Amino acid sequence: SAPEENEQDDPKLLAEHLATTGGKVVTRFPPEPNGFPHIGHAKSMGLNFGYAKAKGGICYLRYDDTNPEAEKPEYYKAIREAVAWLGHEPVAVTKASDYFEQMYAYAEQLILSGHAYVCHQNKAEIVESRQKRTNSPWRDRPAAESLKLFRDMRKGKIGEGEATLRLKMDMQSDNPCMRDLIAYRVKFHEHPMAGDAWCVYPSYDFEHCIVDALENITHSLCTLEFGLRRESYHWLLKALGIYRPVVWEYSRLNITHVVVSKRKLRALVEDGFVDGWDDPRMPTLSGLRRRGYTPAAINKFVDLVGVTRTENLVRYELLEHCLREDLGNIAERRMVVLDPLEVIIANVDAVAPAAQTVAAASFPNAAEGTPEAAMTYPASFAAGKIYIEARDFRLNDSKKYFGLAPGKVVRLRYGPVVRAVANDVDAAGNVTSVTVEIVTDESTLTGKSKKPKAIHWVGWVSPTTPPAQVAVRNYGVLFKSENVAAAPDWRADVNENSRVDLVGYVPPVVLNDLKVPEKHLQFERVGYYVTDVKSNALNQCCELKATNALF
Ligand code: ATP
Ligand code: MG
Ligand code: MG
């Protein structure tokens, strides 16, 4: 069966193509290994792998590796890991560099067929003649001369910048991408995969369409900025007489408060604004992962954003919303106190010793009888001393305030109701400790006190030993502006306070949680956290609720 759509007007080429693909959709995700993949790449993966899957087709992971000076083995690795992490299964992993020999042969073929020539214009001259639509003085040199020079380029006899191979397209075209694009340039640079085999490398424009054709890609999906190159893409394949895929463009993903460009992300790393490509503030896939993002959350986000042909700026909150939806189901509940206020329980012995330790629910909303519902951890106030958040006590009570205040009652989550009976205040007027009494008979509570609000807390280990401590990192947005691209100087827009290091006071169970890599926790009334794979800390994933409108 013929593909739904095809560019191919040559029946023989179409027949060959169909014989190879069996009429299946074939796509590719083609990253350049010049940096760590970011959330924009997740969109590209979602489209390429997703479209192939939806159509019962196949998708390649193909490294677009023809700029050896920018590409590194660690980037190939990070890309491979990210693809697998998001659950995509490439039919094969290929590299543009696998086809260097074939591409070189095509280049010689183009010289002989009058479609390419060796040119000695330098960069500035090329730019100028493209603008003025004037031909290079070498455009009409004999093919034999170009062939000899091109072979000399390959042999390393011609210096960098002294010659390029250019496509003989149409210098009068209104499309600048048709004005004799560069096909090959000399680079005395080892290639991360091909080693020192080459000193001429194909350009993106030359390589991309050829590899698409060689891999029998049916739909070559790319971002809108490549729209102008569609004409040259098909021109070159036609000149070579090889199969022509359909090209579809879609808009790049942009998100508020971050940059989604490897160049800028690299600068953040190199200039020390962040601690590496996988810093939890980075919109790289490895950064998002350390921040606690799950594949489900990212894939959901990519789906929601969808495919458009207009440039837009998606709100960061949408990404967080997708994360919350997933973590709400998988994160075990714990209690943490980040800003401690000491609370003394004056009458702790009024409660039987066995009742001084309560079973806190790991999944309070789980349906009864499910394994989740059975998961609890102990929370103890047996030492007669606990921490609560400083914000949960106020000297002056008010109507909309649900915390503790002098004379007022609250419930210690999973535990008893307590009433504030005294407090200490330092010279500056700050409350330094509160004394409470357990309400032993809750039936005595009347009016509003009948249903006191519950606050989170953590018990001391003994009257002299505070609770366990863990390192906690809270994060703010990486850039102050919503639209970073519109900021006059994107570097000056970096939020210097995007990471806040805190100490969390926790029940002992959290020390075990820390031993589990990438474990998600919901600290009740505080936020979602994840164990950091590179340290003994907990990284904040997001707050419990959106603080802004979503769209
Ligand atoms: P960057 O400018 O960040 O380097 P790129 O386009 O050069 O991005 P590649 O690694 O060459 O990145 O791209 C791999 C694929 O991912 C391409 O098809 C590219 O169009 C797509 N892609 C890259 N960034 C985005 C984005 N922000 N939104 C959607 N697709 C993207
Ligand atoms: Mg690129
Ligand atoms: Mg780019």
Automatic annotation (TrEMBL):
Coiled coil (UniProt feature): none
Keywords in alphabetical order: Aminoacyl-tRNA synthetase, ATP-binding, Ligase, Nucleotide-binding, Protein biosynthesis
Catalytic activity line of the entry: tRNA(Gln) + L-glutamine + ATP = L-glutaminyl-tRNA(Gln) + AMP + diphosphate
EC identifiers of the protein: 6.1.1.18
MF annotations from Gene Ontology: ATP binding; glutamine-tRNA ligase activity
Protein name according to UniProt: glutamine--tRNA ligase
Organism encoding this protein: Thecamonas trahens ATCC 50062
Domain Glutamyl/glutaminyl-tRNA synthetase class Ib anti-codon binding span(s) in chain numbering: 331-437
Gene Ontology terms: cellular component: cytosol
Glutamyl/glutaminyl-tRNA synthetase class Ib catalytic domain location: 24-327
Residue spans crossing the bilayer: none
Membership in a protein family: Belongs to the class-I aminoacyl-tRNA synthetase family.
Chain ranges of the tRNA synthetases class I (E and Q) anti-codon binding domain: 459-532
Biological-process GO terms, alphabetical: glutaminyl-tRNA aminoacylation
